[in-house]
Amino acid sequence: MTEGFDEHGQQASPCTMVIFGASGDLTKRKLIPALCNLAKDRLLSPQFAVIGFSYDSLTTEAFREQLSKDIREFAPEALDDKLWDWILERLYYVQGDFQDSAAYEKLRVQIAAAEKAHSTQGNRFFYLAVSPKFFAPVAKQLGQAGLTQETDGRWSRVIVEKPFGRDLDSAKELNRELKKILSEQQIYRIDHYLGKETVQNLMVFRFANSIAEPLWNRQFIDSVQITAAETVGVEQRGGFYETAGALRDMVPNHLFQLLSLTAMEPPISFDADAVRDKQAEILHAVQVPKPEEVTTMAVRGQYGEGMAGAERLPAYRAEPRVSAASNTETFAALRLEIDNWRWSGVPFYLRTGKRLPRRATEIAIQFRRSPFVLFRKTKIADLQTNRLVIHIQPDEGISLRFGAKVPGPVMRLGLVNMEFDYARDFGRSHSTGYERLLYDCMIGDATLFQRADMVEAGWRVIQPVLDVWSAVPAERFPNYAAGSWGPAEADELLTREGRSWRPIGEEHASSEPNAVPATVGRATAGVH
Ligand code: BG6
What we know:
This protein is 34% helix and 19% strand. By secondary structure, it is of the alpha/beta class.
């Protein structure tokens, strides 16, 4: 049993949710299952309705029927029939072209009808699960149809999915376009990484525990590694990926969210702007590389053919909708520095890639070595340092590595891990990762959404890398085998500074250098 947590939040305000692109994958895989979870936790108001809006010619009945089938496949746990009926009677569909103002008139009529039928009090939010090229046109049409007005205490919000721009200029332009119609408070830029429990837990770990903060600086921390590794290739997304690449796809958004939450100063409160001010501040403090530095601080890679166990994996260039001469990177690693008092001189190494050996997203905080005084006779290589790892997925938890005496008559040091495991200590979560984000939008809490300045600050840091990489094509792509940990240059990024990437998946003592076999000693900690 865990103690001391109030699991019951307040019910969200009455509102209508409009999903643009409702016939797409996100709706059936994430959004509708997330609404079911919120309804189950009684966090949705009974005065609630959902309108799907899309180009596909469906009726409300057909939409309901389709989702009734989909939900059986995608609900994270067995679905209660009554709960599904509750959702179903609040679901509507409007067919239309996102660029056609007549469609917005139809939408306006349907919203008015849903508002009347479900007493949603004129509050609404629009979830744009559409191609980014439609973000600005849809916002404009919504504005022209009078659907973004906030009068008489009613609210109207717009959620946009990534990618938010494809470089600094296009992100700025998109912000400008959206702000012609919406105020910053009405724009909710989603980054699904912020829906992950362990990412949210980062703030709690750092700021609700007095042991973390005093150590959280250059005096005690040697370096930080942030990894988002995927085993999948580009699957059916080759067309999109060819225009994006690993750096754009993952770094200025997901990885920078992790970086900013890890490195930010304590906010003065958990108010949206207090937290986001601190995140933005850290993103502004990241050194922007000069073009001539790009080759030493950034590494790109592309997977060639490889093996995963007995399975042969195709090269990126052989994937569907990928050019046979593609120069798109499927792996990126960066060495960044943060120019502030707390982090000066502490490198932050970031890496992300497709077709790596293991799916793992984590932040590893590498502490400095303790003075050798007491262990003069121990080989330096045997004196391992403390390391705190925040496991974000697929396993969620935190582990701390420390030295312990191996039992026996001689003084021998071993490494053990102290572990907190979310599933073990709090039970397995059936969350889709979207519950908190949808709920926060309905209660008007934008803490977990990106502000315009944060998005732009992220692009600012990687812009020189994008520029250099597009001006100078990669010389020897493919440069890593599918199923391996990326190109050799990514290792060199650290080895030339006397460091190495953490061997992911081998955190249990037995596989670390100089480690004590797990059977000899593994300390575990739980919240009981
Ligand atoms: C998306 C990227 O934003 O994040 C994908 O476009 C990537 O390429 C995905 O696979 C990773 O998300 P997660 O939650 O699986 O780490």
